[in-house]
Every structure is written in C-alpha cells, then in structure tokens.
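Our consortium's second objective concerns turning raw sequence data into structural hypotheses that experimental partners can test. To show how far this objective has progressed, the report includes one record in full. It was chosen at random from the queue rather than selected for favorable results. The single chain below, 377 residues long, was entered without modification.
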Amino acid sequence: MAPIPITIVTGFLGSGKTTLILNLIPQLPQTYKVALLKNEFGDVAIDSQLASSAAISGVQEILNGCICCNLVGQLGDALDTLRNDVKPDRIVIETSGSAFPATLAMEVNRLGRETGCYVLDGVVVVIDVENWKGYEDTSYTAKMQQKYTDLIVFNKWELVDERRYDDCLDRVGDLELQIANVKSDKGRVDQSLLLGLDSALAKDGDSVHGGYSKDRPQHDHSDDHQTEVEVLSINLVSEGDTPKSVNVDSLETFLLSAPKDQVYRIKALVSASHPLASSNGDVDESAGPPGSIAKYILNWAFGRWTFTHTNATLPASTNIASSPTTETPQSPKHETILRMTIVLARDEATKWKGRIEKGGMIEQEGEGGFLIVDRVV
C-alpha cells in the first residue's frame, strides 16, 4: 500500500490556517478522504469542532503544548489512530505557534522511514499580513529551520495597503532564502499548489492536468485579484509506427534542477521504456518487464516527486495539427508520449516556455519527436 501523504500547515494563532484547510476540502473529489491532526492550546478544541462539521473524514487532537517541541513523541500514535480508524487518502497536520517547523517535518520523515506508512508532501506556512511583525530570529539556525518550508501563503493581505504587504515580503527576505509564496484569495489557495505527492489524487482525471482544463469551470477571481500563478501545458509527440519512450535521463535532470521558488508543481502522464524511480529511490514494480513501454503518473512538488504506474491512455494533444510535420490530427504515426502541466510562479511562464522549447529538458529517447508548449494561464 502506498504511503499516506502528509501536509503540514503551520503559522501563528489567528493566521487563517483552519480557513485555508476548510477552503481546500471542496476542491477535492467527493470520494477523497482527508484526516486532520490538530495541535490545540488549552483544552477546548473549538477549531476541531468546526473542522468536524465539514467534509473531513476524521480529526485527532494533541492538546496543551507545542507539537514541534515537547509533544512530538505523541505524533506517531496520533497518525496511527487516523490511519487505522479513518484510512485516509491524506493527513493534514495543523499546528499553531511555530514559524519554524523543521522538528515536526523531520519527525514525519523519521516515521515514514521506519514504518513505510507516511510520506511528507509539503510544509505550508500561513502568514497574517495584517498583523505579522516578521521573524524574531534570523540567525543561521533559523535559516536552516526555515529551509523546511515549501510554500508561504500570505493571508488577509486584502485588509491592508500595498506598503504593508511589501513590508511582509521584506521580512521574509530577511532569511535570505528562496521560498515559493502565494497570496490567498480570502483564505483560499488552489489545491494544485497546496497538494502534490499523491498518487490517489493524481489518478483523478482533472488532477493529473492540474485542474486547469479550458472546459472546466474555474474559480472566479475578481478583477483586482491578480493571478498568482502561470501554467504551461506540454505535449511530447513521437513519430513512427513503434511505441516510443521519453528520455528518462533528461526528464530526471529537469526534475532535479527545477527551482522551488519558480516551479510550484509538475504533473504529467509519461511513457517510459523502463521502471521509473521516485525521488526517494522507490520504484513501482507493477509496470511490466524491462524494455516494454509503460505509462506513469508523475507528481512533482517542492523538489520531491513520485512515479506511479497507471493503465491510463495518453490523450492526443489538441494542438498536434499545428506541427508542420503532422499530416492529420488522427494520424496513427503520431503518438503523445508525454503530457505535462507545470504550475509556475507569476512572470515565469515565458522564460520557462523558451527554455523547454530550446531542448534538452523534455525529449524523446533517441531521435525524433516534437514538442508543443502552450501557456494556458
């Protein structure tokens, strides 16, 4: 059984963590089960009562202390309870009071190595732009701790002027680290940014392509809410009568080198001629004998990725007819061997489109094949 992905959501009291999580749930498939582990101060778990009323499959609480410090030893028991009782597709850990979640992230990694039941997906820090004063500690130790942050969500920025928001950006810059950041839309962030390494979610048709289908109703952003991400759609099309594979070495080099402050998510369906390894070295052995062409779901998030074997068929590119070498869109001599969605930081799409089109990142094994790269958002 695949390990359960764990997303850590942290930030100071009142920053908007529970709102962020509750706004995430409606974006997920109805059959997708999310369990919540909350670290509460005091003995009245009001937020957990609120979360239980939403479409969350189970809630566990660790009370009266900081889960990142003196209560970290209780984490394994709480996760095991959720795993056994709820059997969730994902566990979200919400913890208050800590801007430096390294201890918690390392404990999740340790439990994952020892049990094989869990995998750390990402660490999200929520910042209340209206009230946040910056990091009290900007020492070397603080910088090392903050390296465990994958995404910063700026919340309540609509309530202040632009200067106040710029001050928050400057305070984040005090740590001299490149960390992806995004503004929420009144406490809402698209699930494609918050969730990553999850084969169960990736196998959902919309999720594989990042949920940015032109035919799918999108969240209505007001005119004054500037788009926080840009999205590229990439198709690699082979030519010839025999099945082809992507160049796995080039693809893995691309995944390793993608900077986390520019590239937020990569999701793809990939054809490959040998089993593909996830970033932790695990290989899905269900793909068939070596040398045969198999299909994989690629899910990349924050420098980590998984390859999961799938029987899904790669759909033909809707823009295949635009290639000068193509006879007709239905030509049996052309096959899409990679279809990828890349979610990028704002103002990055044009640069990355040029890099990918230049070649060497996404290409066919051997000679031949052509790329179609479109900006969709």
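The partners drew two points from this record. Residues 102-115 form the longest helix (14 residues). DSSP finds eleven helices and 13 strands in the chain. Both points have been shared with the crystallography group to help prioritize constructs.
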